[in-house]
Design goal:
about 70 residues; mainly alpha; single chain
Length: about 70
């Protein structure tokens, strides 16, 4: 029985570490879209999309926009 609890502890620790790593990358922007929209507008200020977009590709769109 001790082997099972050790295995579950190791597996649970691994899942916790992966979840902690994905939180700021994936889940936080989903929970706080206003903050990330503001940050992206500051980061993309002064960029003319048509000047840097390769010909034939779709122009950038709002990643937070709903379809």
């Amino acid at each position: 029985m001790a082997g099972l609890s050790r295995t579950l502890g190791i597996f649970g620790g691994f899942v916790a570490v992966v979840g902690a790593a994905f939180y700021p990358i994936y889940f936080r922007p989903l929970l706080l879209p206003g903050e990330y929209k503001k940050e992206q507008s500051i980061n993309r200020a002064g960029i003319v999309q048509e000047d840097i977009q390769p010909a034939g590709l779709k122009v950038w769109s709002d990643p937070f926009g709903r379809k």
